[in-house]
Write a structure and sequence with these properties.
Layout: E1 9-10, H1 13-26, H2 29-38, H3 70-74, H4 80-88, H5 93-125, H6 129-140, H7 144-162, H8 164-177, H9 185-217, H10 221-244, E2 251-253, H11 258-269, E3 277-280, E4 290-294, E5 301-305, H12 313-328, H13 331-361, H14 376-389, H15 391-413, H16 416-426, H17 436-442, H18 448-461
Parallel strand pairs: 1-4, 3-5
Antiparallel strand pairs: 2-3, 4-5
Helix pairs in contact: 1-2, 1-9, 1-10, 2-5, 4-18, 5-14, 6-7, 7-9, 9-10, 10-13, 11-12, 12-15, 12-16, 13-14, 15-18, 16-18
This protein binds zinc ion.
Length: 466
């Protein structure tokens, strides 16, 4: 699903991006942005440099993080709170201010994008515009699925075009402003076009399928629609690494050497049945780091981006053990269950909110009932409002899984300092020290403070393993 790599991180973007795709399919650029930002997903961003195993990895000094070495780590206080403070003290005030601004702006953008999406929906519905599109498609073919497919494709293209100004600001200019992006406008825009192509191929049939189900299911449409939604999400999650990701990046087997051997050793130790490790060239798009372990049966693979390869081996081990945690703890399946429940609520909200909104404001929209594809922009707008309001809930579900993967990773890699170092660098785009409530509402990953603290706590309880 396709958020492309605007976001970053170490994480499990798959699900979130899947959700986004589904939403994109139904609309709302806002939410897309959300995951890009979150991943939190899957959908990711560090700032590494020079490689060499066991090098302090803080080559990012120029970014506002003071370097540290083995001597510095040895002198760290045993007390987890004090050690965490020592890590955070390496970050310059300018770095913190920039990071806070980036992160907080991102949260505001979720709101602005949702509102922007509502305006787009209104533009498409007003004066019966969308009703005309759907009647036109119905005249082209008597096959209802085909005409819905046409309407879906027009919708995907229209939303892509209308949201382009926001996409360019958020995905290009803003990313450059904060030093995340490495791509010139031409190649970046080319990828947006590929994204449009992917949307046309995947989202149009998804829209047509959902409307087919809504028409047949009558009042139970919300339930069957949600089931279809989750099936589509699962399908896209499955095919994404193999068929979609390679449209944006080149994947090649990771060269033999200490990094590959360390990753495979972690995989063997944790029962991950694969010997396939790939690297991909994310550095041409972003400075963020990301990796994932995904696949089913014979397709299970470990993938990491080339930014990750530039940090120290302890950091790589810490990150990869976290990713393996998502796999071993079955987070994809658990998230599918969560999104199944969420979609059920979302489809019910769409179905039962549709009539109320159409009666109140839709006198000129020429809409039939909720199963009439002339109301697609309204259904998408309702879904976007539902997903916006439930964002804190979704953030918590995802963040809890991230905490689990963090703990798994600490135990598997036994690299508390590597993990803390990475968490510090991720502070480039995720606020390092938020308030407690702020973290509960806005964070889909633990904050830097929380992650470093959990690493230092682990370290204090495992003195022999330092
Ligand atoms: Zn994660």
């Amino acid at each position: 699903m396709s958020l492309r790599n605007s976001k970053v991180q170490i994480k499990m973007n798959k699900i979130v991006r899947g959700l986004l795709l589904l939403i994109a399919l139904s609309s709302m650029p806002a939410l897309l942005l959300a995951e890009q930002s979150t991943a939190p997903a899957i959908a990711p961003a560090l700032q590494p440099r020079g490689a060499a195993p066991d090098k302090p990895a803080s080559g990012a000094a120029s970014d506002g993080i003071a370097p540290a070495d083995a001597v510095w780590r040895k002198a760290l206080p045993r007390d987890p709170e004090q050690a965490t403070r020592a890590y955070l003290a390496r970050v310059s005030p300018e770095f913190r201010a920039r990071s806070d601004a980036y992160f907080e702006g991102q949260n505001w953008l979720i709101l602005w994008a949702t509102l922007y999406g509502l305006v787009m929906a209104w533009l498409l519905l007003a004066r019966g515009r969308w009703a005309k599109v759907s009647r036109w498609a119905e005249r082209m073919t008597s096959r209802r699925f085909l005409s819905a497919l046409i309407v879906g494709a027009v919708y995907v293209a229209a939303i892509w075009l209308l949201s382009l100004p926001l996409t360019i600001y958020q995905g290009f200019f803003r990313e450059h402003e904060y030093g995340m992006a490495t791509q010139a406008f031409g190649p970046w825009f080319g990828e947006q076009l590929i994204g449009l192509g992917v949307g046309l191929v995947l989202d149009s049939p998804a829209i047509a399928l959902i409307y087919l189900i809504l028409r047949r299911a009558g009042r139970q449409g919300w339930l069957w629609g949600a089931l279809a939604g989750i099936a589509i999400l699962a399908f896209v999650t499955l095919i994404e690494p193999v068929y979609i990701d390679p449209l944006f990046n080149t994947y090649k087997p990771l060269a033999d050497g200490p990094v590959k051997e360390a990753i495979l050793s972690l995989a063997r130790a944790n029962g991950i049945p694969t010997d396939k490790v790939y690297q991909f060239d994310a550095s041409r798009q972003t400075t963020r780091v990301s990796a994932n372990v995904s696949g089913l049966l014979g397709t299970i693979s470990i993938r990491l981006n080339d930014n990750l390869l530039r940090i120290s081996l302890p950091e790589i081990r810490a990150v990869m053990a976290h990713e393996m945690g998502h796999y071993v703890l079955n987070h994809v399946v658990k998230h599918l269950v969560y999104f199944g429940l969420l979609f059920t609520g979302g489809f019910a909200f769409m179905q039962f909110g549709y009539g109320a909104v159409a009666r109140r404001w839709g006198s000129g929209w020429n809409l039939g009932d909720h199963a009439d594809i002339a109301g697609l922009p309204l259904m998408a707008a309702l879904l976007s409002v539902f997903l916006f309001v439930t964002t804190p809930l979704t953030n918590n579900v995802i963040r809890i899984a991230e905490i689990e993967a963090d703990l798994f990773g600490l135990n598997a890699a036994r690299e508390p300092d590597g993990f803390a170092e990475t968490a510090l660098k991720l502070g480039k785009y995720r606020k390092l020290v938020p308030g407690h409530i702020e973290e509960l509402i806005f964070f889909d990953h633990p904050s830097g403070y929380r992650r470093i603290y959990s690493a230092m706590r682990w370290k204090a309880e495992n003195p022999a393993r330092e």
